[in-house]
Amino acid sequence: MADLDWLNTGLVACRSSSAWCRSLWSRVWEEGAGDFHQGEFWDQSALCGCLAAWGEFQPTVIGGKKTEAPAAKAPWFSWQGGPKIKSTEHLQVLNSGAFQNNNPKFAHFAFHAAGMKDKARCCRFVVESGAVQGLRLPPTDPEAAAAFAAALG
Asked: Which residue in 15, 103, 123, 144 has its CB near the most CB atoms, within 10 A?
């Protein structure tokens, strides 16, 4: 698993009151390597590349390719024995199990259906099991669905 980017951006929370966070994604788009703009997972590879260039951290892999960064003194990934919470000057990175999970039985904050073979069945299980509090499902009747959409604005 040496080809993993150090951040998985399947789910990102940014503090909107932070000027640094407000400029983050436009800077990543402008300064990130162009080959990541169209590829799968470009956002996390471009983000890792920019964070490395800005001195935020020194990943050993960006976009599936080894970098010139020295080997980390301790494992980065929690599943390799690294810390479950990692902090840099502007970031706090949580292990994926604490923030998101692609197993609906273990998701604490967000269920992430990426990589699931039968997304529809998994999502139906999550909804039918009552795991989503306050969920409002749109009606299937066209007239009721139009009223529902109008009520949401």
From this structure: 123
Write out the two tokens for 70. 């020295």
The DSSP letter of residue 150 is H
Nearest to 77 by CA among 56, 94, 57: 94
What lies within 8 Å, CB to CB, of 119 at 6+ separation is: 113
- Residues 44, 36: contact at Cβ < 8 Å? no
Q: Centre a 10 Å sphere on the Cβ of residue 94 and count the other Cβ atoms it contains.
A: 15
pTM passes above 0.85: no
Q: Which helix (H) or strand (E) holds 133?
A: none
Q: Tell me the β-bridge partners of 65.
A: 62
Where does the chain have alpha helices with state H? 19-31, 42-53, 96-99, 119-128, 142-152
Paired tokens of 115: 């990589």
Residue of 30, 32, 36, 78 whose CA lies nearest to 51: 32
18-33 pLDDT per residue, tens? 888 888 888 988 898 8
In angstroms, rounded to a whole number, what is the distance separating the alpha carbons of residues 153 and 150?
5
